[in-house]
UniProtKB/TrEMBL annotation:
Its job: Shows particularly broad specificity; although bonds involving phenylalanine and leucine are preferred, many others are also cleaved to some extent.
Organism per entry: Esox lucius
Keywords: Aspartyl protease, Digestion, Disulfide bond, Hydrolase, Protease
Disulfide linkage: 90-95, 250-254, 292-326
Protein name: pepsin A
Pfam families for the chain: A1_Propeptide (PF07966), Asp (PF00026)
Highest rank taxon of the organism: Eukaryota
Enzyme nomenclature, EC number: 3.4.23.1
Peptidase A1 domain location: 59-362
C-alpha cells in the first residue's frame, strides 16, 4: 500500500500577473468582475456546481487521464468536488489554448451518458461525463468519473490551469460524480483518509499536496484540530476577527471555508471594509491598496478559531505588483460565508481530515 502520495504544485504566474504585464488587466477586470458565486446557496443550483473566476490563482499540479496517460495541469480545489478538463470536442477559445482530452486515444475511457454544467460568475462550462483511469502522484485511480468540457466561458482562456480537481465533499459534486479523493479512499490507495496542503510563500517550487498523510517538514508547533460545522465544503466556525485586540469583523461568530481554489481572503462587504479600515488600506480600482513602504508596520489580522488565534502579519496579507503597487489579499463578496483562501493557507499548513471531519491548521514553515 502507498503511505503518502505526494503531488508537487508549481507556483506559476497568475492570470492577473500575465494580464498586467500585457496591459490588459483593467479591460479584463471590467469584462469579468470577480464574483464568488461559488458560495451562494448550493441547493438553488441543482443542475451544477458553482465556481468563481479567480484571476490570482497561481498553484497548479499535473495529473494524467487515460491509457496511455494524457497529462493536464489542474487546480487542486478544496472548494469544489468535480474533476473536469477540456476535451477535443470543445472549440471555445479557452479550449484552444489548453490541453484537451481525447477519449478516442484512451483504451480505458467509457462514456457515462450524462451531461455536466458548471456555472461561473461570468459564464459557464458545459460538457459530458466519462470514466477513466486518473493518475495522481504516481498512483492510479480506477473508474474515475470526470467532466469533459464542450464549451467554456471566455474568461477561462486566461486561466493558467487546464482544469480543476475538486477535493470537497461528495454532496457538492455535480452529476453525482464520486470525487477523486473519495475514490482514493474507497480503493484503499491511501493509508489515512486525510490529505494536506502546503503552499510556498515566494518560490515557484516546494508547494505540495500530500494524499494519505501529513508532512512534518512543512509545519512547526502543534496542529490545531477544528471540527467542521458542515460537511459540504471544508467549513468551520470562526469566533471573531480582531485587529489590535479589537473585534472588527465576524462579531458573534461566522462561517468560513478553507479553500485552496480561492486565492484571497473573501468576506462580507461590511466586514472586509472594517478590516481594511483597521489596517489602514484604502479602496482604489476595486482593490484594497496600501503604501508599499508601510507594509512592515501594518497591524496583524487575527482569526480566532476554536479558541486559538491564527495571525496574519502585514507581509503575509499584502501582495506587491510591479504595475499596481501593493494591495491586500482581502476581497468583498455579497455572501455571509467567509473564504480562507491561499493567503491564509500559505501561512497555515492545512490538513483535511475525512476520517474525523476536521480541518487541522499548523504554522507553515
Amino acid at each position: 500500500l502507498f503511505c503518502h502520495v505526494v503531488v508537487p504544485l508549481i507556483k506559476g504566474k497568475s492570470a492577473r500577473e500575465s494580464l498586467e504585464e500585457q496591459g490588459l488587466w483593467e479591460e479584463f477586470k471590467l469584462k469579468y468582475p470577480f464574483n464568488p458565486i461559488k458560495f451562494q446557496d448550493p441547493r438553488l443550483y441543482v443542475a451544477g456546481e458553482q465556481m468563481t473566476n479567480d484571476a490570482d490563482l497561481a498553484y497548479f499540479g499535473v495529473i494524467s487521464i487515460g491509457t496511455p496517460p494524457q497529462s493536464f495541469t489542474v487546480i487542486f480545489d478544496t472548494g469544489s468536488s468535480n474533476l473536469w478538463v477540456p476535451s477535443v470536442y470543445c472549440n471555445s477559445a479557452a479550449c484552444e489554448n489548453h490541453r484537451r482530452f481525447s477519449p478516442g486515444h484512451s483504451s480505458t475511457f467509457r462514456n457515462a451518458g450524462r451531461s455536466l454544467s458548471i456555472q461561473y460568475g461570468t459564464g459557464s462550462m458545459t460538457g459530458f461525463m466519462g470514466y477513466d483511469t486518473v493518475g495522481v502522484g504516481g498512483i492510479s485511480v480506477q473508474n474515475q468519473m470526470f467532466g469533459l468540457s464542450q464549451t467554456e466561458a471566455p474568461f477561462m482562456a486566461h486561466m493558467k490551469a487546464d482544469g480543476i480537481l475538486g477535493l470537497a465533499y461528495p454532496r457538492l459534486a455535480a452529476s453525482q460524480a464520486t470525487p477523486v479523493f473519495d475514490n482514493m479512499m474507497n480503493q484503499h490507495l491511501v493509508d489515512q483518509d486525510i490529505f494536506s496542503v502546503y503552499l510556498s510563500k515566494n518560490s515557484a517550487a516546494g508547494s505540495v499536496v500530500t494524499f494519505g498523510g501529513i508532512d512534518p517538514n512543512h509545519y512547526q508547533g502543534s496542529i490545531a484540530w477544528i471540527p467542521l460545522s458542515s460537511e459540504l465544503y471544508w467549513q468551520i466556525t470562526v469566533d471573531s476577527v480582531t485587529v489590535n485586540g479589537q473585534i472588527v469583523a465576524c462579531s458573534g461568530g461566522c462561517q468560513a471555508i478553507v479553500d485552496t481554489g480561492t486565492s484571497n481572503i473573501v468576506g462580507p462587504q461590511g466586514d472586509i471594509d472594517r478590516i481594511a479600515g483597521a489596517v489602514g488600506s484604502y479602496s482604489a480600482n476595486g482593490d484594497n491598496v496600501v503604501n508599499c513602504n508601510s507594509v512592515n508596520s501594518m497591524p496583524s489580522i487575527v482569526f480566532n478559531i476554536n479558541g486559538q488565534a491564527f495571525t496574519l502579519s502585514g507581509s503575509t496579507y499584502v501582495r506587491q505588483s510591479p504595475y499596481y503597487g501593493c494591495r491586500t489579499g482581502l476581497q468583498r463578496s455579497n455572501s455571509n460565508l467567509w473564504i480562507l483562501g491561499d493567503v491564509f493557507i500559505r501561512q497555515y499548513y492545512s490538513i483535511f481530515n475525512r476520517a474525523q471531519n476536521m480541518v487541522g491548521l499548523a504554522l507553515a514553515r
